[in-house]
Amino acid sequence: MRPWLGGVLGALAIAQPLSAEESPLPPPYEGVYQPQGVDEIGFWREDDESERALAASPLVIRDAALNSYVKGVLCDTVGPDRCNAVRVYILREPTFNASMSPNGTMRVFSGLFLRVRSEAELGAVLGHEFGHFERRHSLAGFRRARSGTDLLAWTSLLVSMAPSYGAASSQRSLEMAVYGQIFRHGRDQEREADRLGVSYLNQGRLRPQAASEVWKTVMTEAESSARSRGLKKPNFKAIAFFASHPPEAERADNLAALAVPDGAARDDGALRYREALAPFMPQFLDDQIKLNDFGASDFLIENMAESGGWSAPLWFSRGELYRLRGAQRDFVNAADFYARAIALDPSLAEAHRGLGLALFKTGRREEGMTALKEYLNLKPDASDAKMIALMLPQDTGS
After folding, report:
1. What CA–CA distances, in Å, run from 370 to 58, 126, 342, 360?
2. DSSP-derived secondary structure for 204-237
3. pLDDT per residue as tens digits for the range 98-152
4. Which residues have CB under 8 Å from 381's CB, separation 6+?
5. Which of these, 40, 33, 37, lies nearest to 86 by C-alpha position?
6. Does 346 score more than 90 pLDDT?
7. What's the whole-model pTM score?
8. CA distance 201 to 78
9. CB 239 within 8 A of CB 12
């Protein structure tokens, strides 16, 4: 399993972009790989057991239309022959991630849908994960990790038989070298998956330049998150010693260089993407807001509005974001955002609720009660209807 986004523990070196092949195309497809030998068969069986548990997980989003759409984007990206080897599971998890197991299980987190804006960008991420699958990176990573830890176990035994300062020092140096090699190998696999991912797009109908734009969005989100929390701007060019992925700036630059130039004029499927995801975005945004990362959430909402225009659900989500942060000035902004949502869709009951609660917090009780009454009129069976009714005078309550 190869996570799309890895952790960074400390900047140790400045990344150098790869001298990559120009605008590659995917290699000939060799068909679904069958595991060979005890290690591989055991690895695949372990993944089969994990998939059985995954299939029964309550986190899996089972909506047929959404699953069909995402699988279709994957097929458009990698081609129908490769696509048939994959089983896609969409998980309700608000972080930015996707992964793929050796047995053909692809996991897509719902947070990914907030961070891509088109079929081309979604295809770029899915194609990257398929690249890991096609090149069997998980298996190679497992073998390298096992070889390295076996070596360390034997050296530890030998050092215990001849203890000295020099032997212990040499063992520590060897440990650093082995761990560094393991993580460097993982970063090289990510670079190979990037090349494969963009090669699928180069050959397909979607715009390959979108792969680079995904990482530009990731960097801008990280900057917004850091700024909101009073932290310094992240360094997107540095590689941490234990980093499992290349730095974001390197990936954005390389992916832009690898995209075929004439692909820039292709369709990116932004409108189709927005229409397919529209029924699910309110829930995904609500999950994102609950992560309590104000800067990242505000950026994502604005990014979606920049792509498809401000809609009632987007204004409502921004109102929720500001109201739940709870600074006094936030309630004023929240009330304005709820009002904008209501202007676009007066039937959006939750916007009336948010408006009423925000107005109460700013001392505008009469206007707040009017908004809450409208909320109860629109949604009399709401789970919090009795609690909201307690905020209204008896003669004006429900």
Report:
1. 39, 47, 13, 11
2. SSS-TTHHHHHHHHHHHHHHHHHHHTTPPPP-TT
3. 999 999 999 999 999 999 999 999 999 999 999 999 988 888 777 777 777 777 7
4. none
5. 33
6. yes
7. 0.85
8. 7
9. yes
